[in-house]
Amino acid sequence: MLPKWTSKWMLGTALVVIFGALLVSSPFEESRHTTFAQTSQQADACNSMVEEALRLIAARCLDVGRNEACYGNSAISATLNDDALAFETPGDIIPVSAIDALITRPINPDSQEWGVAMLNLQADLPDADDSVQILVFGGAQVTPTTTQLAADTPTCHFTNSSGHNLNLRAGPGENFAVFDVLDQDDTLLIYGRWADGAWLRSSRGWVYAADGTLDCETPDELRLIENSQDLYSAPMQSFTLRVDDEARCDAVPSGLLIQSPTGQTANLQINNVELKIGSTAFITVDKDNQSMTVSSLDGNVDLVNGNVPLPEGGQVQIPLDDEGGYSGDPDDIGDVEPTSGNVPQFVEQLTNELGDPDDPKNAFDGIQAPPEWTPVSPTVEFSTDKTEIVRGECALLTWLVTDAQGVILNGAAVGENSAMDVCPPETTTYTLMAIALRKDLADTTVEVVINVTEPAEPTENPISDTDGDTIEDAVDNCAAVANRDQVDTDLDSLGDLCDPDDDNDLTLDSSDNCPLLPGTAAGCPDDDGDGVRQDFDNCPTVANASQTDTDGDRLGDACDPDDDNDTVADATDNCPLVVGSPRAGGCPDADDDTVPDASDNCVVVANTDQADADRDGTGDACDTDDDNDGVADTGDNCPFLANPDQSDNDEDGIGDACDPDDDNDTVGDAGDNCPLVANTSQANADGDPVGDACDPDDDNDTVSDTTDNCPTIANPAQDDSDEDGLGDVCDPDDDGDGVNDPMDNCPMTWNPDQTDTDGDGPGDACDPLQADIAVSVTVTNANPAPGELVTISMTVTNNGPNAANVTLLLGDAMISNGVGVGGAAVANLGILNPGQTITRVLYNSTVTPDLYVSRDASVMSSSLPDPVSSNNASAASFTVPPPQADIAVLVTVTNPNPVPGELVTITLTVTNNGPYAADVTLTLGDATISNGVGVGGVGFWTIGVMNPGQTITRVLFSATVSAALYVSRDASVSSSSLPDPVTSNNSSAASFTVP
């Protein structure tokens, strides 16, 4: 299938028609190519040159096939990986897989260059008849980054058998972006796998292996993929794009025009940006290669990076990193508007008009070549003003050529419409050959013959004039080539017609873009050696290959003392590339307050001091709420100090938050012990930080003054012995007996007579008798064994200081073999003198098993108060456990892994660990597997009575073993006449295996 742009001869015709419409329109307002001013003559030259070049491209690239590249128009530079191929002449067609780098030159009317190449790509389109067409034009550089598959790469076919559509992803995992969708029952060509085999790779994306079936017997032979992003395999399906900004025509862009087949979507990767193109798109890169612009001219473009769908007419700008790759999410820069400069008119109008008017989505289909233009062989008009001359004379050759891609005169390339003086030394045939636009058309050749006769013999003084140009050889600067004008541009005494380097700049005229001007930039003058010819260099004496000119004043930044043209010299300009104010160090300053906008907290309100009370980033000068408390400054009683409640204790109009004297008592809040209650005296009874006027507890005893019976003396207990309403700590007579406390022998007990019978100081009213009676019950052994003598004793002691009549309450309890009895009794001990001790045995007996006994005693009554009640009662008990026997079972084997012929013994050991004798029965189990045949069974062994400490041993198995034998034996306590306190050792097993 022929590329859509070249089928039916429509590309060239359409481009000519559309470009003709463009050339009469106004150029867009802000061209990318602003490095050079364009004169009307240059514009005319550009228009004429492009019009002719586009017409030629259609004819030259008609035969380009799938995955091929066509050299559309000069000049193009290509680096190839196949020395047998050439891509040097318009019309050359090579495989795109042979291209390592492709550079198209920006338009330049002076050198008649405008590089245009056509790429016809397979991408990931499944139909062999479909291709993605890419037109590369202007100063563009394309470098493929696709990983090519070797011819012998193992492949399989994967069929979606999941019962639903499958996502094809950018990498081997659910977290990768979705590239495409595989419909149910559709098939993919698989050429790789992830390390674990769970994900498979096709040119359309990664697919989960478990969701389908493969037709290959050994999927492990598929290539192991180690780079999950290595997705693109078709030739030139992934590439980088760079753009050179040195175009000479404002209206002619540099970049790519891409079209996918109608109704289909192609996956491409450009500058690491994943694109799904189901449309016609224009793509370019800014001059510093820091961002890429994608414009959807019709149909849709999906940017997988950032998951951004780009509808028809949409346009985004994608940031690129220093390596020229994707570095962030795209920014929407509006709709496609040619007149605003975001998409060159050339591209927009080209796309709008290259299509069927009834089918705007079919951008390049349906264009028919107008009948007046049909590819034909070249037409040549070639003549001379003289067909007969005398040797030494010259004649003028003139020619006019149409429909040719090149013109050759006697083996040298010449222009299509030109004239030339010739001075042949002898009769000469001049052959002009016009090269046809296409290889299937004939070239046109026309000859002109100029006959040369010898001049009449001189009568005297003959001169030597080899070239017959009337200039004597001795003084002729081209003695062998006629040049009557003797022009010698470089004054090296060798005339231009025979000088291979007319300007003597070491660049031969054949490749010198300025053959008559000495220079270094492709032969043109270049004083600063930066590769930019002198007449186009915006810094002719300072090297600046990039030609950056920030302020557009035609003086490059490298030599411009004021790059942003804001009257502040770069040497002192803090923002040398942005127009700014001299008062702000050359940076933008909208309010002219000397603070640059970038750091100004009030950009449009002058505030040199940059005050910002609430530190919210908005200066006070333009902040309607300086303290950020939600109350506007106009109604805020503390505008610079946050106080959303607006409290004002003294109602003086100044909020408490910023009022230095909130109670207006002339004592500043910082030193006022009652800042919200006026108290000029600052009285403070309890010495705490709060003054009496506002202290609810003046003595700081946690009792409010309103209820405190001593409000100025701390008494948290509020004791008031005489209940006169005055607390004891501030009452001079606590008991109210008429005797003040310092003289009262019972200050807290009413005794006006102050009687003290025993003369010990305290009055009788507050000096009563008392006796401390201590009771203790003890046991000789709380955990005795059967047959042991156990005694429970009671001791009663009067710790004084007075004798007392004491009565005790005695309690007893006993549980024997589960049967319990108990009771209580009263014991009248009579008078116990201070220091006297009485001991009584409450229990004394040899104990039997399964017995519990307890005894307790407590003071029932005493004739005197007891100052220590905690020792008035005591108890003791003991427990004898019931009969029990710990039966331990152990089965052992002499060797669990014997060899054939070895003697193996399995032994059972049974031990009674006591403490009582018990009647014991065991369960015995056995199993044997010999050469795959198994037998086994269960039996019982009644041992009878085993005494404490007794051990019985029994051999369960003993034999010389044979091969392929497994034997196991086990034993467990089936029954015991007594409870077993330890059940974990009641069973055991052992086995062996002979291989």
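(the above was protein one; protein two follows)
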Amino acid sequence: MNLVKITEVTEKFGISSRTLRYYEQVGLLKSERPPFEKHRFYDSENINRLQQILVLRKMQISIKDILRIYESQDMETLVHSFVKRMEEIDDEISTLSQLKAFVSDFLNAMTAHGITHISALPLLYEKAQKEFLSASKQDLSMETLNSISDKLAKPLEMDIVTLPPMLMITSIRTDSRKSEVESFWDWLSANQIPFGKPGSRTMFEFQSGEDIVIMQKLPGQISDMQKCNESPEAFPFEYREFAGGLFAVSSTFADEDLGALQYRMLQSFDDNPSFEVDFLHNGSLRHEALIEAVFSPENNRERINIYVPVRQRKPNFVDYPEFEITESITYEEIERANPILQEYGVDFHKITPIYDPHFTVLENGQAEFIAWISERKLDTNVAVRLPFRVDMEFLAEEESEEYLWGTTEGSLWFSHGGCTYTMNAENYADKALKKHALSFQQPVLGNAFSYPEIGNIPHDRFNKLTWIVGEEHFAVILNGEVRFCGVSFPYMDMDLHLHTPETIIIGTNGQGKKRFRSIKISQLKTSAKTNTIQGALKMNVKQSNNTLPNLRQIIHPEYGQNYWFNGCASYLMECLNEQDFDYWFFAGLTGENFTQIYSKNGFRGNGLVDYRLSEKGNHHVIEEIFEKCGYACTFVPLKQALSNREMYVQMLIAYIDKGIPVILNDYGNNPHNRFGWGVLVGYADYGKTLLYMGGDGTVPDSISVEDLLPKGYTEQDDHCHGWLFIGEKQESKDLAEIYRERILTLPQLLTYEGENYCFGGKAFRAWADHIEKGYFEQITPEEFDNWGMHTVYVCCLATNSGGCKGFLDKALALDPNMTFISGIIELYRKTGHYWNDDNGTDLEALGGGFNVTLEALQDKSKRKKIADKLRAFADCMDEVTAVIERFKAK
């Protein structure tokens, strides 16, 4: 096979390597990298195709049309593309003919009316327009001229640049707060401050209200003097820190229509996959559009650059090709292809434990680590950017993993930025569900992958684990064995050197003990990039995107916040400046932190709110929650939202623009697999794409309206899916009364039983009977869903055993007469002991907690003990009800 190196291709055809990479990304070309070669190569078939593409591009056939030609391999498609191009040329000819006729008619009118001076042109224009219109001749309206001008306008040429932060002095006076350009100009000259040279990006002007403002970078010595507040009277003009950042820049002559150019720059961002204009929440730009003088190729015409603030969009992995897995490669070959630039040994004494895991440095210099839960982790305080490498020498103690907590007991993971890399993942307590997987998220793009059976870790011996997240290979090596190696990942073709260094965080899950002998983190070498990022940028002056300014994580599982609706409600109230209505308030008000759940006929959700919404038409339950807080609200069922999708999307946009999120409990065709309650916090592309926060996510996920509100949706069950729009505050409720009413009405929840589910003591007893009577004897390992069938109820009782205390303490503080509350606190604390601290007879010790197995639920002796323990929980709930009823009887 005759292969041609990429550098030879660029020289032969006069095309940049970035253009070649773009053709590969869209699927027009394909290259290959032979073993031990740094560069990509093209075979004869792809060289021939490149020649065809270049011919089509010379004829100005669009990339989209070229893709259609090659996808169909049909002559009809090629002919259609040529016909389309000829029609475009005909349109251009027609537009030029209109302009020619316009100019000709105007010239004839000027001659006929004896116009000899340019100052008379406006009067002639009005008169000629009336005459021509009355004679039904050529339309000389300004709208027609603008339309012709727009059609003939050349495509915008723009670049994306980064302006650095700098201290600037402006023409705005400190006393009057008005811009005085003339006196500012004189002041700069009198103080020998050098004027910014054209194109140096040190002097700009911009419009602020009705004022034109000049902004000049301060020289170093004057900047230092101002920072020290020396001679304040010497600075009669306002100085400010210019934050810099990304800007789109286009050039024009100063005598052109600058407003029209700025409008076209904004308009040209529509549907751009890489960038969008940087709007603030209030609809204004991050910074006013800047104008900078540049040297002009024509001495008699001034030329300027216009800068518009933009920001990068997060890349979407669905727009990128798949990577390739390579199996015939050695550890040594991978190391050679991904050389280390700088290695950092992690000092165990400088590691920062997060959320209080067990972590100690032993006398022999090794470090001992038990996470208990995945949120408890270790900050290495070593930051690297992509590409990087992590080497760990560690021992996993098998004996300490005997209880098999959680889904990833025995795993060892680290995170870098927003991506996590896990060895020995997805280890459920039930052996049939164990995967011993190697899982990771692709850098930058964040899409997740999991490969079962290749992540298993030998126990009770030291292992050497190496992750190479490289520019050439993505590889995982354990004890010298290449467990996984991939090439041609999309992230590898990105400008990795532009990414910010991120700290390496290390973690595991469960009570399994890890001992570290050494941890090394290495910055890998990147290939030099010689050309800058460019792109066709499209946008509209109308605000196309907006995001709430006060984004935060909705719930914190590490604090026992396991009911997502309450986190969403808390965030909504926070945006309305309601400080009393936090997560714990709503978890108590809804009753979720007090009430055990149990379904008689299948999984219904994770808490009381989900259960109540699982019955058709029961969405008034959500509206009643906010009514108790004094607010009106409207729950829009999904079916209703779909019937008028555009109206509700526009309603959402209006809410976001006002700074108010919208709660939702349906995610449609969710590409991020983050199902459950969430809040819509932003939009992009004029509402075609929506942003939402859910669960413990720290940054918004995006989802298209087509996915969130899919056409042709049919209801799968009776569950009340939909959106909740908060309304006006109707009244200020007495906080003490809200707490008191909730406590005194708890018996209604704790004794409820309906056709489909039950709560409180009845839930515990129904659950116990279900287990003891042998329901699980008929369940096969393949059918066993440990969360939906069992551990969701364990999570509920574990959460409530301590989660309700804050609400109870607050209620007692607001109403000291409810002295019985201390007894309720003790009863819930007692359930906590029943769960995992009852001298070997607790639910976890009996094998009926988070560590449940199908074998335990099928064994008659074991399941009886589990059922008996659940009935002890029921007795506690009955006593809670009795305590409250005795108080009410008084």
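Reviewer note on protein two: The longest strand covers residues 514-524.
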